[in-house]
Amino acid sequence: RPSLSYRPMMVTMAMSTSNKNKSYWTSVHEDIGAHLRQAVVVKEPVEVYEPMRHFVFAAPVNMAPVLCVAACELVGGHREQAIVAAAALHVMHAASFIHENLPLSDRTSLIPKSKPTMYHAFKPNTELLVADAMLPFGLELLASSDNPAGNNSGRILRVMVEMTRAMGSQGVVEGQYNELQCSQCDDDDRKLNGITDVEMTYETYKKKEGRLHACGAACGAILGGGSEKEIELLRRYGFYVGMIQGIVSRRLGPTEEIEELKKLAFKLREVNSFNDENAEVIFSLVDDNITHVLGFNLG
Amino acid sequence: RPSLSYRPMMVTMAMSTSNKNKSYWTSVHEDIGAHLRQAVVVKEPVEVYEPMRHFVFAAPVNMAPVLCVAACELVGGHREQAIVAAAALHVMHAASFIHENLPLSDRTSLIPKSKPTMYHAFKPNTELLVADAMLPFGLELLASSDNPAGNNSGRILRVMVEMTRAMGSQGVVEGQYNELQCSQCDDDDRKLNGITDVEMTYETYKKKEGRLHACGAACGAILGGGSEKEIELLRRYGFYVGMIQGIVSRRLGPTEEIEELKKLAFKLREVNSFNDENAEVIFSLVDDNITHVLGFNLG
Lengths: 299, 299
Description:
The structure is a homodimer. By secondary structure, chain A is mainly α. Chain A has helices spanning 17-39, 46-58, 64-74, 79-100, 124-143, 153-167, 172-184, 187-193, 197-223, 228-249, 256-271, 277-283, 288-294. Chain A has a single domain, classed as Farnesyl Diphosphate Synthase, CATH 1.10.600.10. Chain A starts with 16 loop residues before the first helix and ends in a 5-residue tail after the last helix.
């Protein structure tokens, strides 16, 4: 009788470039997870912190936090300078994911079917409030990481402005608004507005995933002490990574658009000043193999 | 035929102490309103900023922002050092008020009848998202007020930690959670938990109004450069103001408890070092006449 238990397939192979990149991303991801496990503990009030911990580890993972750490290291910073910001990005992303999935009277049935959805472990009321607690909690982690002796308060405040904008009305929230508008439109509305479904979807992941990942990379570069040119270059790179993630997570790809975005991303590598091994690692993130193979899980 | 138009009753009186205090609070309030009017403008995306501006000026006003400015001035700071923090407190309070009034499947009918409620000018979906944008927007206002030349990044970051804690799981959110638990309990539940309705309500406004006003006063003292002793004393004073506001806004008062809280607040004045005219002004806030007469309106 064949065994029903799962046995991993053992493959012996030389440490290829791709494997080296993969192990880099895995280590970054593990460090963020470790930081979150010690930062998000169940304490009083348990009614708030227990669902908070649940959602921090149950929410889907995106690439903005690992990009934040990698960008910091690429510009010559140390991992610990970016790890709290990366954890904060994950907590805030998880908060916005909860609200996005909240059953409201005017949208219960409108959440696009193609998107990853959430198992509702708690009542809507608890889910609403716990996400309301998570957004400030993420920023609290970051603000309280300021070490007066470290003389980096200015950088932390700059990162806070980046994050609040990306999470708010000029980023994720606008994207979510677009997405719901989009799902509520019928064909006549679209004709009236002169905008196609594809264009609306593009606007959505530009604001949501694009803006969030651009923010992650820019924040890492700021915290690592990158130049303004490096910060803006990594912001653009993060934007392309986010756009690709937006397409992939909506199961729209692989499309020509992904290939186009990859080309744009690789072009950034050519014009920049990071012509060394570290640059190879960070640019490996736009490689489908990396993002798909990793299957990140923070639990 | 009698005129139906409203004519204010003209009363001529000498500028009493109470009037002087009242004009102080009015001027603080007007300055916060003026700052909000120029900081919260309708811009792109209009779908987010228009409801945001609506709610910033439609949400009920509490005393945390004016306390923040008054505490700053009391410890010797300038008004402009605290005005952005005060505006941020109002924006975040407005955000939490919106979510508190959001109709959710498990609480539509459970919002206590005695509380001020909200006219729903937008759909639940818009109200959810706009409040999600307002919390980071409030913190963005504060973070971007940092002037690198001003050398006060450390104070701003400390204030951010204060605010994120007060708004989140250790303050307003816990209070809101309590309040809803409370409204869902029946008498048997209460007997089982060994907690009375009065005790639950007390816990609620301790966390919500108490914590928020304590935060407002402490933040003002931090930004104005107060000593640790002054910061903690003003935090306690703010807590009493918030407790009184919590009782008054639930239309539970006037009760013996308010008198007790007033006594505690005035006791703080005796033991502190602010034995001058400015102290008289800030302590006038616990006087019912001031809080009731003002009828603050930011519009």
